[in-house]
Amino acid sequence: MPPETPKATQPGVITIERHILMEQEKFPDSSGALTSLLYDIALAGKLIASRTQRAGLADILGSAGHENVQGEDVQKLDVYAQRTIYQLNDHTGRLCCMASEESKDIIPIPEQYPNGEYVLVFDPLDGSTNIDFNVAVGTIFAIFRRRSKSGPGRMEDVLQSGREIVAGGYLVYGSSTMLVYTTGHGVNGFTLDPSIGEFLLSHPNVRIPDQAKYYSVNQGYEKYWTEGVRRYTRWLQGEEGSSMSLSQRYIGSMVADVHRTLFGGGVFYYPADTKDPKKPTGKLRLLYEAVPMAYVIEQAGGYGSTGRGPILDVKPEALHQRTPVFIGNRDVVGKAEEFIAKYDR
Ligand code: AHM
Ligand code: MG
Question: Which terminus of the chain is less hemmed in, N or C, by CB atoms within 10 Å?
C-alpha cells in the first residue's frame, strides 16, 4: 500500500513565529515587515528574559549611576533592554524611527540603514525599580504606520493616537516569561518554554473575565487623590452604594498589575494626584505605557480610560506626556469616569 499523503491538521503546538505568520495570511497584500518586526520583539524578549533571570548573579543589579530623561535612576537592566531592542531594529529597514521611555528624543535610524514604513514605541523595562526585589518587570510596545511619506521619521510619525496602532503588547518577566500581543484581531498570550527557547501559544483569544475580582492601585498615595478617586475606591470596596467588594492587589509593576487584571478581572489605576507638582496627571506615560496596555485590554473586551474618556482617543502632544490611567473591566472603569465627572470638576 502506498503511504497516505498527510492531511493538513490543526497544529498541536503553535510557536509565536507560526502564529505571527498565520496572522499575516489574513492580509494577503502585506509586505511581511510587520510580521518580522513582531518576531524581532519576541526575540528581544527572550534576550531580556534571560538577563533578568540572572539579575542577582551577574554584575547587573542596581543602578547604572545616572538618571533617565524622567529624572529617575536608570537600572543596568534598563540599559540592556533598551540597547537590545534598539540593536535588533535599527538596521532592518522596517522602521523609520523609534521612541523609548528611556530616550529624551526620537531615536533615528542610523544613516547607513534604510528607513521603513513603521514606528516602534516602547518602554524597555517597566517597573525596573522592582528588579532588586525579584519582582516581575516587563517590556511594553506599540507599532504605528508612519505618517510622513519618506526619509527619517519625524515627530508626527510618533505622536499618533492609540486608534492608529497596528500592533501592540507586552512581555512580562515573571515566574514564567509571557508575551501578550494583538494586531487588532483579539489578544493572544505566549509562554516562553525555556527548555526549547520558544514562545508557545498558551492563552489563545484572551478575554477579560466578566466578573471583576481585584482593584489595583498604590493606596499609599490616597492623601494626594481627588475626591472622585477616593470615593471611587470606596465604591470598589463595597461602599458608596456599590454591590461589589473587590480584593486589593498592587505589585508596582504596571505590566504585572495589568496582566493580572487582564486574566483575573478588575481594575488597575494610577490616577492624577497632587504628590508631585511636576506630574499633575500621574506618573504613567501615554505613549509607552497607557496606550499599548489600553489597546490590549480593549482588544480583550475591557476598557482603558484617563478617567474622563478613552485613552486611545488622546492625541499625544509630547513624547513623554503623562496621563491618568484606569484599565480593566468596562463597567468597573466606566464607574471611575462617573465618580470623576461628578466630584472632580
Ligand atoms: P518605570 O517605567 O520607571 O518603571 O515606572 C512605571 C512604574 C509602573 O510599572 C508602575 O505602575 C508604577 O511605576 C508604580 O509607581 P509607584 O511606585 O508610584 O506606585
Ligand atoms: Mg515604565
Answer: N
From the CA of 255, give the closest atom in ligand 1. 9
Q: Are residues 69 and 194 in the same domain?
A: yes
- CA-to-CA distance for 189 and 180, rounded, in angstroms? 4
pLDDT in tens, 74-105: 568 889 999 999 999 999 999 999 999 999 99
Q: Which ligand is nearest to the CA of 129?
A: 1
Which triple of cell numbers denotes residue 111? 544613516
254 Cβ inside 6 Å of ligand 1: yes
Count CB neighbours of 62 within 10 A: 13
**How does pLDDT run across 41-59, given as a tens digit for each residue?**
999 999 999 988 877 665 5
pLDDT score recorded for residue 278: 87
Atom of ligand 1 nearest to the CA of 284: 6
On whether both 240 and 316 belong to a single domain, the answer is yes
107 and 144 belong to one structural domain = yes
Ligand 1: does its nearest atom lie under 6 Å from the Cβ of 130? Answer: no
Percent of the chain whose predicted confidence (pLDDT) is above 90: 78
The β-bridge partners of 105 are none
Structure pTM? 0.92
Please tell me whether residues 197 and 264 are part of one structural domain: no
Q: How many domains does the chain have?
A: 2
| Ligand 2 centroid, distance to 234 Cα (angstroms) | 27
CA of 127 to the centre of ligand 2 (A): 6
Per-residue pLDDT tens digits for 109-121: 999 999 999 999 9
How far apart are the C-alpha atoms of 19 and 205, rounded to whole Å?
Answer: 12
What is d(CA 73, CA 233) in angstroms, rounded to the nearest whole number?
Answer: 31
Which pairing describes strands 303-305 and 165-173: parallel, antiparallel, or unpaired? unpaired
Q: How do residues 195-229 score in pLDDT, each as one tens digit?
A: 999 999 999 999 999 999 999 999 999 999 999 99
Domain that holds residue 235: 214-343
Are both 119 and 97 inside the same structural domain?
yes
CATH at residue 30: 3.30.540.10
Residue 295 shares a structural domain with residue 337: yes
R_g (Cα) of the chain, nearest Å: 20
Tell me, yes or no, whether 81 lies in a domain: yes
Task: Tell whether ligand 1 has an atom less than 6 A from the beta carbon of residue 102.
Answer: no
128 lines ligand 1 (CB under 6 A): yes
